[in-house]
Amino acid sequence: MATILGIESSCDDTSAAIIRDGILLSNVIASQQVHEEYGGVVPELASRAHQQNIVPVVDAALKRAGIDKKDLSAISFTRGPGLIGSLLVGTSFAKGLSLGLRVPIVDVNHLHGHVLSHFVKEKEDDEVPEFPYLCLLISGGNSQLILVKSPKDMEVIGQTIDDAAGEAFDKCAKVMGLPYPGGPHIDRLAAEGNPKAFKFAKPHIPGLDYSFSGLKTSFLYTIRDAVRTNPDFVAENKADLAASLQAAIIEILIDKLDKAVKATGITTVAIGGGVSANSGVRKAVADYCSTRGLKAFIPQRKFTTDNAAMVAIAGMFKYLDNDFCAYSAVPYARVTV
Ligand code: KG4
Predict the structure, then answer these.
(1) With contact defined as beta carbons under 8 Å apart, do 53 and 300 qualify?
(2) Among 130, 237, 310, 318, which has the minimal tally of Cβ within 10 Å of its Cβ?
(3) Rg of the chain over all Cα atoms, to the nearest angstrom
């Protein structure tokens, strides 16, 4: 029996989860409100908040799972990519607890966690993807098309050459005066707007790579030009701007997804990362797959943002492979899949 504690502390959420033989027993997340007034995550404040949260969050995860820490087989933790100070808290805590309990540690690439989050089962008969599958990983820092051949064999076949999809949402939302992060606000506003009200520039990037910076600039210019004659332009057109922006981002995402499906012949498609919480993206991917007879894995919203359940499941695959981590391991800020 494998009982894994997963720890996630890469950005501004402190999370701990327990997985036993693939089944999620608990998943506790403490989000940090301290950053709201700054319009973005402040790294030093994030690491201090992780330090305050980590012990009670791990304790709550054990209690909710109904297990004792002595029942753990291994501790998995996010080693990167992310904010170094934040990652250090989770990494150091995992090492300390592992030494105290005499169980191994397993390091997890945060991006692998998102890709493998579809293997977290809440009940025995929950369906999981079959290898190989294509994962569209879309978050605040990444937009990647990944060919997932096995839990440890992933190939990035396309990625953004500038902004990530989440950045496009957030930066355009900022121009509209919406709070950070803007993605969820755009999502909410878009539900009431006309997606065809505005047209923005489309990228012309060959192959499977993404680009969102042209769309961002075109969105910015649309607003800049319009407010010259109508200072209330944004307030009067909030929903239409949001709906048109969201539609443009979705079109870019689906265009390359379609190219990747055709290039690989893959029949299973998964999405992951913060932007996969977007209602329009979820519907577009589900519709795209159903009209082509492809199997779609759309994560539950609670598994789209940073969570330790995905770290625990990615850790479980490595644990079962005896792929442990040395105590000398240090966190890394940057890496791709
Ligand atoms: O994976 P994630 O939690 O972490 C980072 O990579 O930072 O992704 C965060 C991103 C942010 O850009 C946020 O605006 C976006 O995910 N996001 C959304 C939605 N929920 C979160 N974007 C669009 N619609 C949403 N509903």
Answers:
(1) no
(2) 130
(3) 20
Whose CA is closest to 160, among 241, 64, 275? 275
Parallel/antiparallel/unpaired status of strands 23-31 and 13-20: antiparallel
Cα–Cα distance, 150 to 162 (Å, whole number) = 28
CA atoms 151, 153, 158, 163: torsion sign: positive
Across 123-146, average pLDDT:
96
How would you label 163-175 residue by residue, b for 16+ Cβ within 10 Å and e otherwise?
bbbbbbbbbbbbb
Number of Cβ within a 10 Å radius of residue 231: 10
Tokens of 115: 């890709």
Instruction: Report CA(139)–ligand 1 centroid distance (Å).
Output: 5
Which residue among 136, 169, 302 is best mutated to probe the pocket of ligand 1, counting the most ligand atoms within 8 A of its Cβ? 169
Ligand 1 center–CA 181 separation, angstroms = 7
For residues 87, 90, 91, 96, the Cα torsion angle rounded to the nearest 10 degrees is 160
Residue 254 CA: distances (Å) to CA of 90, 138, 269: 35, 12, 12
CA-proximal residue: ligand 1, atom 20 (nearest): 184
> How much distance in Å is there from the Cα of 166 to the middle of ligand 1?
5
What is the per-residue pLDDT across 202-234, written as a single tens digit (0 to 9) for each?
Answer: 999 999 999 999 999 999 999 999 999 999 999
Looking at residue 155, what is its pLDDT?
97
Q: Give the pLDDT confidence score for residue 281 in this predicted structure.
A: 98
Nearest in space to 129 (alpha carbons), one of 119, 120, 144: 119
Q: Is the CB of 81 under 6 A from ligand 1?
A: no
At 146 the pLDDT is: 98
Buried b (16+ CB within 10 A) or exposed e, 239-263: bbbbbbbbbbbbebbbebbebbbee
Residue reference for tokens 């770290």:
311
Percent of the chain with pLDDT over 90: 93
Whether 34 shows a pLDDT value over 90: the answer reads no
